[in-house]
Amino acid sequence: MAPYWTIERWLQEAETSVRALLLAPASENAETGALPLAEQRAWDDFLGEIASFRAAVTAFTLGDGRSALAFCEEALAHLSPANLVARAEVAYAKSLAYHALGDIVPAIQSAREATTLAQAGGDISQIVAYTCRTAYSLRLQGKLHEVLQTAQLAVTRGTTSVGLPHAMVCWAYSMHADVLREWNRLDEALELALQGVQLSEQTETIVALYFAYSVLMRVYQARGEVDVARVAFQKSEVTLAQNYSPYRRDIFLIAEWVQFWLSSGEVDRATLWAHELAQQPREPSPLAREREEVARARILLAQEKPTEALSLLEPLRVGAQRQERWNHVIEMQVLQALAHSMGDEEQEALAILAQAVQLAEPEGYIRIIVDEGPPMARLLSRLREQEDRQVPTRYVDTLLAAFREAGGAH
């Protein structure tokens, strides 16, 4: 895939040429000085297709959600009602744009609209890709069971009658694996994560491969297999570099990468990344900036600076809660609990951990809590001792058992 600015230049040149054609007299109809009406409509439709592609590329590569939404409106002003493929692309671009803005509810709605339009248009690549986009957005909303169902649906839709999967099914394998990892079903997660990597490699689907390697890294890490986890991370990093976008790194990967560095003892690497981040222009995407700040909060905790970490996390949690990104809310509350505990504020730590547990229990979250290691295990044990009626004790017992299993694995 060409760099963003090259693609943008091509699209601008194409738009300029089409607009000039629409304004110029047509030799086929010199008396009226205009193109035949059917041809005008065809070229106008093409302008809509150009705008739809600009919207998708801008949202996916730069994370500039507001500009992408403006391109979407421009596209819809030109596209004919019958152009279902392009209209599906516009709905997909809207989903990407809302995602960049952190507005996960309209992101899910737009992804579902894109899938419906793609089904009407009969484009299997679109159908699978947009179904997977729906699954990914549902993941951020914290709907793990729906993610699993949607990922399985993408596999069904993208598998031929003789059992051959479409290239984009690799996304579904990776997201299915990530949910199983979260539920601590690590053997099943590993099998699916490897399937996602293998299909991405075979089909050279680079935009899915760095994500697939990152999921594989987290599965290996949860299994206590640090060396192969590091290999998976290195492959994720190398693959991203082939089609590098700071936005895609930050919105998909950076929080997990920093967590991996810190848990692997690579504090210097994490600190260097934070230093480099401070020297760079900020991302236009609010969600990418949030992911960066969550990663920074982890580094501050590793440096035993809980007050600074809390000052970062609280406004982020409020924003994530307002946008109903419950996966991120749970993550931030877990980090806030650790920060309060580090600052000898046990009651505050237990109170916010209780909130996280209540949010996490319906969807069966495990690794989001267990991956925080011994400090979280001690805090969770204290919460269990309180026997708070509002805290689901059977679920807390499940978490504590997972901690014991993780200790044995490590």
Tag the structure with descriptive keywords.
mainly alpha, 79% helix, elongated
Beta strand %: under 5%
Low-confidence stretches: 28-32
Give the structural class: mainly alpha
Beginning-to-end CA distance, first to last residue: 40 Å
Describe this structure in words.
The chain has 20 helices and no strands. By secondary structure, it is mostly helical. The chain is elongated and about 80 Å long. Helix 16 runs antiparallel to helix 17 and helix 17 (346-360) packs across helix 19. It is 79% helix and 0% strand. The protein has four domains: 1-86; 137-158 and 166-240, Serine Threonine Protein Phosphatase 5, Tetratricopeptide repeat (Alpha Horseshoe), CATH 1.25.40.10; 245-302, no CATH class; 304-410. The chain has helices at residues 4-23, 37-62, 65-78, 84-101, 104-121, 124-141, 144-157, 169-182, 186-203, 206-222, 226-242, 246-263, 267-278, 286-302, 306-322, 326-342, 346-360, 367-370, 374-386, 393-409.
Write the layout of secondary structure elements.
Elements: H1 4-23, H2 37-62, H3 65-78, H4 84-101, H5 104-121, H6 124-141, H7 144-157, H8 169-182, H9 186-203, H10 206-222, H11 226-242, H12 246-263, H13 267-278, H14 286-302, H15 306-322, H16 326-342, H17 346-360, H18 367-370, H19 374-386, H20 393-409
Helix pairs in contact: 1-2, 2-3, 2-4, 3-4, 4-5, 4-6, 5-6, 6-7, 6-8, 7-8, 8-9, 8-10, 9-10, 10-11, 10-12, 12-14, 13-14, 14-15, 14-16, 15-16, 16-17, 17-19, 19-20
